[in-house]
Design a protein that fits this description.
Blueprint: H1 13-35, E1 40-44, H2 51-57, H3 71-78, E2 84-92, E3 96-103, E4 106-110, E5 115-118, E6 123-125, E7 135-136, H4 142-152, H5 157-160, E8 163-168, E9 171-172, E10 178-180, E11 183-188, E12 193-197, H6 207-211, E13 220-223, E14 232-235, H7 238-248
Parallel strand pairs: 1-3, 4-7, 7-8, 12-13
Antiparallel strand pairs: 2-3, 4-5, 5-6, 8-11, 9-10, 11-12, 13-14
Length: 249
């Protein structure tokens, strides 16, 4: 009976060295990436909260290893600041972290307790750092104030800057029963006044077009709280009122 000879495979030294070198490079690259710190932090969308405060909130002040950072956890930490409504955190391949901020804008000062009402209805202590916003002069139910602030936040900022004072002004019938509990009176920087209700607050975006129209002369009170379409403007100018009467006669 013949005995079969088993051929031994020779070790391919060149291929083995290439494989070992490949594994070595992968391991070194992994160690490099694991230890490499964040090189740059890009922050956009913020004006109320400084870059330094955002980095501090995110616990990135020491520029920790890039791979150890969790975008979702960083976003959660940043959003703990009431002035920040949303934070989007993304990685970039050059060891950069990009943070996009959506701020929770301060809308008005609540005179009764000296707090600042933000766009989402939350109120924070007034430390005097926020200027140029109107003041709510009288007591307002919390639920109505929240609805008002959320609606007001959708108004163009250019219009918001024109509001100097706000007064809660619900309307009542002859039996002193509430008609509209969501009605407010706005005093503007141009001395006009506006009655507005929460459900129609988007009409404020047309304010500049209204006051620049030929139908509006002088200063007065603009009624945007009516159930009907359009608006009513009652002028405070006595001369204009007399002219209007003469025109009718």
């Amino acid at each position: 009976m013949e005995t079969k000879k088993v051929k031994r495979k020779r070790l391919n030294i060149a291929r083995t060295l290439v494989f070992i070198l490949f594994i070595y490079i992968i391991v070194c690259l992994g160690i490099y990436i694991y230890k490499e710190p964040i090189r740059h932090i890009e922050i956009s969308g913020n004006s109320l909260v400084s870059d330094a405060d955002i980095i501090r909130l995110a616990d990135l002040i020491d520029y920790p290893p890039y791979i150890s950072v969790s975008p979702s956890k960083v976003a959660t930490k940043i959003e703990m600041n009431p002035l920040i409504a949303d934070a989007q955190v993304k990685f970039s391949w050059d060891f950069t972290i990009k943070i996009e901020i959506t701020e929770n804008d301060p809308l008005f000062i609540v005179k009764s307790d000296n707090t600042i009402c933000l766009a989402d209805g939350e109120r924070i202590e007034n430390d005097g750092s926020v200027v140029g916003i109107p003041m709510l002069l009288n007591d307002t139910p919390d639920s109505i104030m929240t609805e008002f602030s959320k609606s007001l936040a959708a108004v163009d900022k250019g219009i918001l800057y024109l509001i100097s004072e706000i007064e809660y002004a619900p309307s009542y019938n002859d039996q002193n029963q509430p008609i509209d509990e969501y009605r407010f009176l706005l005093t503007m920087t141009d001395n006009n006044m506006i009655y507005i209700t929460v459900s129609k607050i988007e009409l404020l975006n047309k304010y500049l077009d209204i006051v620049s129209s030929s139908q509006v002369t002088g200063t007065g009170t603009l009624y945007l709280d009516s159930d009907s379409e359009g608006y009513v403007f009652q002028t405070n100018d006595k001369n204009t009122n007399e002219d209007e009467k003469n025109d009718k006669n």
